[in-house]
Write a structure and sequence with these properties.
With 196 residues, the protein is an alpha/beta fold. It contains 7 helices and 7 strands; from the N terminus they run αβαβαβαβαβαβαβ. It has a 4-stranded parallel beta sheet with strand order 6-5-4-7, sandwiched between helices.
C-alpha cells in the first residue's frame, strides 16, 4: 500500500473521485488524502464505516461532496447516482475493455449463470446462510441457470456448507480461485450478482 501511494503521489491528477457512500477513513479516504489532485470529489455519506470524529476529519480532505439521502440504496445504485451527479448520464454507451480472459477455468462462461457471494466482512450484517440455500434452491427449481459461489479464502467454509447442503452439479465453488480481475469478468458475464 505504501509503495502504491508513493507511486500515485508522483502523478499530478486533475480529479480524484471517491464514489463510496459508506466511506472508510483508513481504506478510501486516507488514500484520497495522500494523492495529489486539483479536485477531490466524493459523497458526504453516512456513519456506517466511520465514527463521527473520523468523518468530521476526513470530510476536510475533499474539495466537493455530494449530499444525498441514500434511502437504503445498494452501493452499486449509489455509484450510478454518483456518476449522474458528475453528468455521466450515458455510461451505457461506453464499452469497458476486458481486463483478463477466463480460459483457465473449466466452466463455460457463455452459459447462463448467477454469481452468489455469501460471505461478508461483518457477519452481524450478513444475510443468513439458510436464506442463500433457499434462494439457490429456488433458482434451480425455476431456471436453467448455473450458480457460481465466489469469495475469498475466508468464504470457503460457508461455500462448502452450501455445496454440501445442495449437492447440485450446477452449483460451482470458485471461492479463492479467482483474481480480482477474473472476478470482475465473471460478474460482467453473469446474469446478475447476489451478495452481502
Amino acid at each position: 500500500r505504501y509503495h502504491k501511494i508513493k507511486f500515485f503521489q508522483g502523478i499530478n491528477w486533475n480529479f480524484i473521485f471517491q464514489p463510496n457512500f459508506s466511506r472508510d477513513t483508513l481504506l478510501g479516504d486516507s488514500i484520497l488524502r495522500a494523492v495529489s489532485s486539483k479536485k477531490k470529489i466524493g459523497f458526504l455519506g453516512d456513519f456506517v464505516n466511520q465514527s463521527y470524529l473520523m468523518k468530521l476529519i476526513s470530510n476536510n480532505w475533499y474539495d466537493h461532496q455530494f449530499k444525498i439521502e441514500s434511502n437504503n440504496l445498494h452501493e452499486l445504485e449509489l455509484n450510478r447516482v454518483f456518476l449522474n451527479l458528475l453528468n455521466f448520464k450515458n455510461c451505457e454507451k461506453y464499452k469497458i475493455k476486458h481486463l483478463t480472459n477466463l480460459k483457465n477455468f473449466k466452466f463455460d462462461f457463455s452459459k447462463k449463470y448467477i454469481v452468489i457471494s455469501p460471505g461478508a466482512s461483518d457477519h452481524k450484517r450478513a444475510w443468513p446462510v439458510k436464506n442463500f440455500i433457499e434462494l439457490i434452491k429456488f433458482i434451480f427449481e425455476n431456471t436453467d441457470y448455473y450458480v457460481l459461489l465466489c469469495g475469498g479464502i475466508n468464504d470457503k467454509k460457508i461455500n462448502k456448507f452450501i455445496l454440501d447442503e445442495l449437492k447440485n452439479p450446477k452449483l460451482i465453488d470458485l471461492s479463492s480461485k479467482t483474481t480480482i480481475l477474473e472476478f470482475i469478468e465473471i460478474i460482467r458475464a453473469s446474469i446478475f450478482l447476489i451478495g452481502n
